[in-house]
Amino acid sequence: MGYIRFLGHSAFEVEVDGKRIYIDPWLGNPDSPLKVSDVDRADIIVVTHFHGDHAGDAEEIAKKTGAKIVAVYEIASYYEKKGLKAVGMNIGGPADVDGVKILFTPAAHSSEIGVPTGVIILGREAVIYHAGDTGLFSGMELYGRLYKIDYALVPIGGHFTMDPEQAALFVSTFKPRVAVPMHYGTFPVLYGSPDKFREYVRKYSPGTHVVVLRPGEKLEF
Ligand code: NI
Ligand code: MN
Fold this sequence. Notes:
Layout: E1 3-6, E2 12-16, E3 19-23, E4 44-46, H1 52-55, H2 58-65, E5 68-72, H3 73-81, E6 86-89, E7 95-97, E8 100-106, E9 117-122, E10 127-130, H4 140-146, E11 151-155, H5 164-174, E12 178-182, H6 194-204, E13 209-210, E14 218-220
Parallel strand pairs: 3-4, 4-5, 5-6, 10-11, 11-12, 12-13
Antiparallel strand pairs: 1-2, 1-14, 2-3, 7-8, 8-9, 9-10
Helix pairs in contact: 4-5, 5-6
The structure holds nickel (II) ion (NI) and manganese (II) ion.
């Protein structure tokens, strides 16, 4: 039994194959139900790219829990130099991180260090794709041919990332079973709405089920 818990913005707590994984843990976001002081256990922290609203509290959580930070090589090196445990990889094939297969995908965005990525966690219980911050691009259809993506977490806020219609078309390229919108509503500039996303997914990717998680809410599998 595992779950995906939304922590606001693009932050998620995932439990899969017995590991507790935080993805883009910016717990300072205005919607987060958790503070760093509430995090009592973490095994792996994934940072998709080096922007404050994603790298967020990775350092503090790693310090507190001893979790390994998994990121592209240059970002991992940044954390290693601070004395933290990190696994540096790159866009490519999966790496085995304490028994969990993790791989980075491209993302069309920017990053203060390294390159921006999305991440696929190839769990035995579930295959989860967190798209990071990205604009619309083609290429995820190839990943969709290789891996059966159960849950896709995709940015819909617009301005810095895809808007709801772009995100729906994006999802149609790899057809996950479930799509969860993220990176919207945190600030007024992130105008994309989950209702619009649902509407467009119905049009572009009718086989995909949209699940909107409120901050703190869990999707269990
Ligand atoms: Ni960003
Ligand atoms: Mn962002």
